[in-house]
Amino acid sequence: MTRVLVVEDDPQLVRALVINMQARRYGVDAAPDGATALRLAAARQPDVVVLDLGLPDMDGVEVVKALRGWTRVPVLVLSARTASDEKVAALDAGADDYITKPFSMDELLARLRAAVRRTEALPMAPETTMVTTSDFTIDLLAKKATRGGRNIRLTPTEWHLLEILVCNPGRLVTQKQLLQEVWGATYSDRTNYLRVYMAQLRRKLEADPAHPRYLITEAGMGYRFES
Question: Hey, how many other C-beta atoms are within 10 angstroms of the C-beta on 196?
């Protein structure tokens, strides 16, 4: 059974979410605030988290950051905040998708299913947990990147992009695939996101970011990692 943690302080919305999810045979836990959410996440180990940003005790973005300190569980933000910078902040903190209120229950459940599928599709063989190049090393299990013996700080979004590429060495990963995996289905045409984040990754990892050796652009199609 897929277990969902709903983090929301509106009792009516919580009730609607619980009823709809349980009808589809999800196990559901609910938390009315951030502190309770973090305790339940550690105790219950949910498969996916549905998170409101406007919580009574802390901002939802802080909950995402706290979760990302120890788990890769998919986080679907469900919020009335519609400003672009609010969405970017949540996604950069490590959220996997962002759904604005009011929302369609069918769309929310479809995105929830997609998030769970993406997690299930990412098993890692032991031989692929460490990627070493002449310039940097990626430890996929420890989620660490090092260059010249120094740790490189990557944001959750940068890490997610890099992880997908290095797990598919030599293979083209399309723009659409990357956007859907990292930002969600509704962002499949936001190719500018990829340009910005790939430029950041190159600055941090490539010896010559203007002439990348490892993070290769296939113009108009996608990106490829060459080791």
Answer: 11
DSSP class of 59: B
**CA–CA separation, 41 and 49 (whole Å):** 8
* Distance in angstroms (rounded) separating the CA atoms of residues 40 and 5: 8
> What residue spans of the chain are helical by DSSP H?
11-23, 34-44, 60-68, 84-93, 105-120, 156-166, 175-182, 191-205
CA distance 79 to 67: 18
Cis peptide before 209 (omega within 30 of 0): no
| Under 8 Å between Cβ of 165 and 171 | no
What SS3 class is residue 84?
A: helix
Dihedrals φ, ψ of 18, to 5°? -60, -45
Structure-block tokens of residue 129? 């947990």
pLDDT band per the 50, 70, 90 thresholds, residue 182: confident
55 CB neighbour count, 10 Å cutoff? 21
User: How far is it, in rounded angstroms, from Cα 139 to Cα 145?
Assistant: 6
**Gap between the Cα atoms of 137 and 160, Å rounded:** 16
Query: pLDDT of 27-39, one tens digit each?
Result: 999 999 999 999 9
Predicted TM-score (pTM) of the model is: 0.58
